[in-house]
Amino acid sequence: MSLFKRIKGIMKRPEPPIVQRSILATGPGDVCEVSLVTYQVIGRVMNSRRRTTMLTLQDGAELRYLLIEERENNEYSLFSPIDGRLDTITEVPMKLELDGRMFHMEEHYAEYVTTAGKSPFMQGGEQSVWRYQSDDRKLLRVEWMEGRFMIYEGEDVLPADVEVLQGKPTA
To answer: What is the dihedral angle through the alpha carbons of 101, 105, 106, 108, rounded to the nearest 10 degrees?
Structure first.
């Protein structure tokens, strides 16, 4: 080996380590696994002030929604959309009964969100959210934006059950 090749090998910068993609950076085009089910991420609604992200997940024809809350430890909730409607934004009740289960409102907030990909609301803007919980820890989420309601039913997911499998390349 020549002296120049040796010097070139010493001077060459090492390649940066491959960084594991975070679930918080997940967006349309990524693939993730939640509770042993593999989903393609097709949309994202992000509330940067509250540090929450709602991912639209698709598995075949089924759509699910993963809510990620960035706190001391990330908290996850998996939701399914349900049929139903409310008449007006000013008359959202403190208690809702759904299939014999009583849900009690935990919080209500209105914040600005941004969207990407295919999500229930196609443009960013002011979104109102009502969060409910039942006595047996089931969750209910009501969202209002762009003049329409979305209602989801779900439950909390353990952080160990959420993993990014494959992501789009980062620039």
So the answer is: 140
With a CB cutoff of 8 Å and minimum separation 6, the contacts of 134 are 101, 102, 103, 104, 140
Query: Which residues fall within 8 angstroms of residue 70, CB to CB, at 6 or more apart?
Result: 24, 51, 52, 53
Burial class of 119 by CB neighbour count within 10 A (0 to 12, 13 to 18, 19+): buried
Q: Tell me the whole-structure pTM to 2 decimals.
A: 0.83
- pLDDT (tens digit, 9 = 90+) per residue, 81-98? 998 778 788 888 899 888
In angstroms, the first-to-last Cα distance of the chain is 36
In the predicted model, is pLDDT for residue 171 greater than 50? no
Residue from 76, 81, 75 nearest 58 by CA = 81
**Side-chain-side CA neighbours of residue 70 (13 Å):** 13
Is the model's pLDDT at 130 over the cut of 90?
yes
For 19, 51, 75, 79, 89, the CA distances from 157, given in Å and listed in that order, are 24, 18, 8, 10, 29
